[in-house]
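Recall the central idea of this unit: under ordinary conditions, the amino acid sequence of a chain determines the structure it adopts. In this exercise we apply that idea directly, starting from the sequence alone.
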Amino acid sequence: MAGLAESGSNPDVDLLYDINGLAKDAPGWFDRVMEFVGEYGLLLAIVLLVVWCWWTVRRRGDEDAASSVAALVWAPLAAGIAVLVNVPIRGFVERPRPFLDHQGLEVLVSGKTDYSFVSDHATIVMAMAVGLFVAHRKFGLVALVLAVFGGFIRVYMGVHYPTDVVGGFALGTAVALLLSPVAMALLTPVIRAVERSPRVGWLVRARGRGVGEGEGAVIPGARREQASERDLAA
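Accordingly, the structure predicted from this sequence is:
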C-alpha cells in the first residue's frame, strides 16, 4: 500500500500500521466495540474505579481516610490540569492526525480534525490512573493496566500514532506525580475540614465511624487489655 511505502524506516509509522492492521482483519462488531471502549468505555471504567476506591476508603474509616480521599480528589484534578498543559503542546507541535498523512488506515472514528500529539485520551486516563495509584496501590494497578490498554486502542482505531500515546502517558504521569505534593498539601486540610462537618462528613468517613474508630485503627489485643483493666477495677 502507498501508506506502507511512505512509512519508510519510521518505526512509529510502521507500528501504527501493524496495530491498526488488526482492525482490518477484525469483524465489524468487534471494531464497534473497540470504538466505544476507546472513546468512552475505558475512561468511564477508571472513573468508576476512583468512585469504588472512595467508597471503600470511607466505609473502612481508617485514621488516614482524609488523606486517602484527598489523593482520590487529586486524580481527576490531575487529569484536568494535564489536558490544559497539553493545549499549548498541541499548538506548538501541530502534528496532523495519522490518517491525514498516511493512506490505507482503518479509521474507526471520523471527524477528528484537531492535532494528534499529544493524545488527550492517553493523557487523561494515565493521569487518573497514576493519581489513583498514589491513593491506593491495588486499585491503581488495575487503572494503570486499563490506561495502557486504552492507549493501544487509540492506535488500533487509527486516530493516533504510538508516540502520541507515549507522549500522553508521559505528560499525565508527570503532572500527577510532580504536582502531587503541592496538591496534597492544599487538599488534605480541606478534606479534614469536610470530615469534621456533621453534614458532609459522610463523604470522608461512613456514619458511625469517628476518627480512630476505623477498622484499620484497631490495635491487636487492645480489647483484651481493656477487658482486663475493667476486671481489675471491679
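DSSP finds ten helices and no strands in the chain.
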